[in-house]
Amino acid sequence: MTIEEKEKELIADFSIYEDWMEKYEYIIELGKDLPILKPEHKTKENIIVGCQSQVWLFAEKKGDKVIFTAEADAIIAKGIIALLVDVLSNQTPEAILNTELNFIKEIGLQEHLSPTRSNGLVAMVKQMKLYALALKNS
């Protein structure tokens, strides 16, 4: 499934919910489904700088695809990183680098986050793109 197809699916999923409290609950549920990060990947080097809570992100290349795994110590942050992992994992580095991640705006995510969480979201996306860039030629 392409990034665009995953984004369309997420936009449709979020459109079911009437208000932002329900959408936050959905984001929290997504975080609960995030696979647990292996202890050896939960290192200081894998912490995303710029997040209010601690968020760990690990990336590896399998074939021509980037696989992301992540964990966070706060439920909303965990849900947000779960959204991003769902959309960007198992994609080529080029696809990750070239995506605009329109779903963030479409579902209204950034405008419904506190300024510190919004900064964290930007930091998460930036780190995922940096990993894609680093893995592009490996």
From TrEMBL:
It comes from Putridiphycobacter roseus. It comes from the Bacteria. InterPro entries: Fe-S_metab-assoc_dom. PANTHER family: SUFE-LIKE PROTEIN 2, CHLOROPLASTIC, SULFUR ACCEPTOR PROTEIN CSDE. This is SufE family protein. It holds the Pfam family SufE. Belongs to the SufE family. Residues 12-129 form the Fe-S metabolism associated domain.
